[in-house]
Design goal:
Structural class: alpha+beta
CATH superfamily of the largest domain: Butyryl-CoA Dehydrogenase, subunit A, domain 3
Shape: globular
Strand order of the largest sheet: 1-4-5-8
CATH architecture of the largest domain: Up-down Bundle
Largest sheet: 4 strands, mixed
Bound molecules: flavin-adenine dinucleotide
Radius of gyration: 22 Å
Oligomer: single chain
Distance between the termini: 14 Å
Order of helices and strands: HHHHHHEEEEEEEEHEEHHHHH
């Protein structure tokens, strides 16, 4: 039988090593950071601990798991990354400590695929070395982010540069980033609406690139910035990919990046389920432990089944990416399902914890407000459902069967 649900020995070893690294290095560092929070030393402790975590990741050979060895990475494929990311994301700083966090991870893949050699030297290498950080600037407050053909930020070709004007927001990691991948409209009347945009590498700081504010969210401020772009000059050689390829580049970036989010969300969902069970085995009410009550067991059962489905979907989509097969449907379905499961599982965990779950004494409240954006960023639920339905209708109309739209599995 060709179907094998076990990892090769070397991937299993990496996974075990990441778990040990999180237990021995990340969790103690996070405890130090939390203890110093809001105090006068908070910033200093944060910087020290981040350096310590990243340096140790390099020493343990866990640095940059998703990148090829020629860029200093471990060269893991997407299936192996599912194991690493789900493990690392059980902690808050794990993915960042390994230099495998959004948006840098997606930007690295984008640069690896689209950048010229000179662009790789100037932008990709320092990103891989951890000496630069980046952001990805596409969404605008004035038009629906779900439809990038509406982008208004405009680039006009001048003698030796592009002049760009526009407005972006929710640009994650923009404060502290040394460069941005910026999507702007370059074609006024393209043959296809998707071919209106191009991508640019923008050095930060640059005149004409202004961070207006960190947009505060229901989860607080997390460096999702509003950016005003006025008369920004970008050298011609800083166009990334060809003219009119911004949409293509964004889509190519978003597929694996969406799945990378799912891998991290699995780690969070698993933690929430374990917390739910742990609490239910300790809390006593109305003559028995919560875990002995059928109403609570249903929540545990539903969450366990969903977590299982999340893992199967993510592994299958990752397997298709690794085999260079068309993965769009599988990533879409996984992204929708995992995002919604994550929200449901965290919500049930809060329910079982009662007031404690609503408090900030456990990580659940923070996890819930973070999880909420999963349902609309990187493709809103409804947009994925629309695409999934279109593919199912198309498959049925063309072949009389929905098999190819439902994972194309041999069943
Ligand atoms: C935490 C966070 C981080 C982010 N980081 C970045 C970043 O680094 N860079 C960046 O460029 N952007 C980033 N974004 C923005 C994100 O990509 C957008 O929020 C997303 O693309 C949706 O766009 P929008 O918010 O404009 O919502 P809209 O496009 O206005 O959509 C709003 C709602 O309309 C509905 N809808 C839209 N289209 C359809 C349809 N076809 N059918 C049915 N219903 C529909 C959906 O319910 C959707 O949720 C981030 C957002 C968040 C919350």
């Amino acid at each position: 039988m060709a179907i094998d649900f076990s990892f090769p020995e070397e991937v299993e070893q990496v996974r075990t090593q990441v778990r040990r690294y999180c237990d021995e290095i990340v969790r103690p560092a996070e405890a130090e950071i939390a203890a110093a929070e809001d105090g006068p030393e908070a910033r200093k402790v944060l910087v020290e601990q981040v350096i310590h975590m990243r340096k140790t990741a390099q020493e343990w050979g866990l640095w940059l798991p998703h990148m090829p060895e020629e860029f200093g990475g471990m060269g893991l494929g997407h299936v192996a990354m599912a194991a690493v990311s789900a493990e690392a994301a059980k902690t808050r700083f794990g993915p960042f400590a390994l230099n495998a966090q959004a948006p840098d991870e997606g930007n690295m893949h984008t640069l690896l695929h689209w950048a010229t050699d000179a662009q790789k030297d100037a932008y990709l290498r320092p990103l891989c070395e951890g000496t630069k950080r980046s952001c990805f600037a596409m969404t605008e407050p004035e038009v629906a982010g779900s439809d990038p053909t509406l982008i208004q930020t405009h680039a006009v070709e001048r003698d030796d540069h592009w002049e760009i004007n526009g407005h972006k927001w929710f640009i994650s990691g923009a404060a502290g980033a040394q460069f941005a991948i910026l999507i702007a409209r370059t074609e006024d009347d393209p043959e296809l609406p998707q071919a209106a945009n191009s991508a640019f590498l923008v050095d930060i700081p640059s005149e004409g690139w202004e961070i207006v504010r960190d947009v505060h969210t229901m989860s607080g401020g997390h460096n999702h910035c509003e950016i005003r772009i006025s008369g920004l000059k970008v050298p011609k050689e800083n166009m990334l990919g060809g003219r009119g390829q911004g949409h293509l580049l964004g889509q190519a970036r978003l597929g694996p990046a969406r799945l990378a989010h799912c891998m991290r969300w699995i780690g969070q969902a698993e933690i929430a389920l374990e917390m739910m069970i742990d609490r239910s085995m300790k809390r006593f009410a109305h003559g028995s432990l919560l875990g002995e009550k059928q109403g609570i067991q249903w929540m545990i059962a539903d969450s366990t089944m969903e977590l299982y489905q999340c893992k199967l979907m993510v592994l299958h989509a990752a397997y298709k990416i690794d085999r260079k097969e068309d993965f769009k449907s599988e990533v879409s379905m996984a992204k929708h399902f995992v995002a919604n499961s994550l929200n449901r599982i965290i919500d049930r965990a809060i329910q079982v914890h009662g007031a404690l779950g609503y408090s900030t004494d456990t990580p659940l409240a923070h996890m819930a407000t973070q999880a909420r954006w999963a349902r609309f960023a990187d493709g809103a639920d409804e947009v994925h459902q629309w695409r999934i339905a279109m593919r199912a209708i198309e498959a049925y109309t063309r072949t009389g069967s929905v098999t190819s739209a439902a994972g194309d599995l041999p069943l």
